Amino acid sequence: MTSRLQPYFAVCPGGLEAALADELDALGAREVREEGGGVAFNGTRELGYAVNLHSRIASRVLWQVGRRGYTTEQHLYDATQEVRWQDLMSAQQTLRVDVTASRSPLKSLEFAMLRIKDGIVDRLRTLSGARPSIDRQDPDVRVFAYLDQRTVTLYIDLSGEPLFKRGWRADKGEAPLKENLAAGLLALSGWTPEVPLLDPFCGSGTIVIEAATIATRRAPGLNRPFAFERLANFDRAAWRRLKDKALAAVDDTATAQIVGSDISTRVIEQARANARLAGLDAFLGDGRLCLEGCDARTVEPPAEHGMIISNPPYGEQSAPRSSTVPKMMGEVGDRLKAAFPGWHAWFLSSDRQLPRQMRLSETRKPVLYNGALECRFFRFELVGGRYRPRGAHSIQGAD
Ligand SMILES: C[S@@+](CC[C@H](N)C(=O)[O-])C[C@H]1O[C@@H](n2cnc3c(N)ncnc32)[C@H](O)[C@@H]1O
């Protein structure tokens, strides 16, 4: 395994860059730099594997193999000639090239992509006499080129399927959260496995399953393949060591109290199936992970104190029924005030009116992106008592 430091970029949902940077620091990354939509860092080749295996928040890990200034398409071609493609893939393997750009002076990204693809193919043909073929569906090697105004950066995708695909989702359910966004909610809230956790709108169980896998120290990438396993320089022995260590770290005896409920018994069945596929049978069996059908308006607190972390229905996701959601959320707010004093609740929603609907005042509301949808992650301290809307005047002694 080479110990030379390599440059990487980990992509993540907007708003989770700082949480991802913390994760990368903990994994031993060097020169960790937050950028919009991801985090750049340096590390060994083994660290590139480890981030794929352990990161809960990254969507994808890219390995930077080339970078140079450009003004024309020919410069993009030239940039490909500086990379040792023969160390990364054989001419018998398949290739895919994708280009994204921000303020690029070039007219056609399609043409830019073709020049980069030609450069890689020509280089491999010169060295080996054969040319790799293109496969857009399931390539062995995927190259991402990123063009800004003056610089082209060439990356090799180390992940393949995005990292939020942990390999346990049996069925997608209705508007499931991506697993890495769920992990981001848990990280931003400061939840730790000792704290009782409730998701009263758990749907397919994404938040509670992610929490249970954190409690059991189950690495999120244990049950899926990665693109780096198909690269010519893949270090099988190093990968085996990393995976063995991650497997040995799984602790099914961990204590936890994690509850997911939903009004739909159909999605609860799905959530249970997902939890089993995630390897959480033991947790399900003895109720450390409890999944049950229940209306959030009548939900019971599973403990005296704890955290609610949830992604309730909101307009964009449930259009035909959207007019009933604000009223329902008002009733959920009443329920939380009455039955959950001392709890902290965090709700992810694109509806800025959520605090008003629930008659609760938020103490924080960081911005997060659920795909393209701008959301707020509202934090409420449930203290019981009465609600006073923001900006409302109070006369001392009369409130
Ligand atoms: C946005 S989805 C949650 C998705 C979930 N985070 C996941 O990853 O699958 C909202 C969920 O709220 C549920 N729901 C709607 N009204 C409810 C109510 N009154 N009580 C409990 N659950 C409700 C829906 O069945 C749906 O599963």
Concise description?
The protein is of the alpha/beta class and 399 residues long.
Order of helices and strands: EHEEHEHEHEEEHEHHEHHEEHEHEEE
Note the overall shape.
elongated
Largest β-sheet summary: 8 strands, mixed
Q: Report the total helices.
A: 11
Ions, cofactors and other ligands present here are: S-adenosylmethionine
Uncertain runs are 391-399
Strand order of the largest sheet: 2-3-1-4-8-7-5-6
Radius of gyration: 24 Å
Q: How many beta-strand elements?
A: 16
Task: Provide the residue-averaged pLDDT.
Answer: 93
Which labels suit this protein?
single chain; 399 residues; alpha/beta; eight-stranded mixed sheet; 11 helices; disordered C terminus; binds S-adenosylmethionine
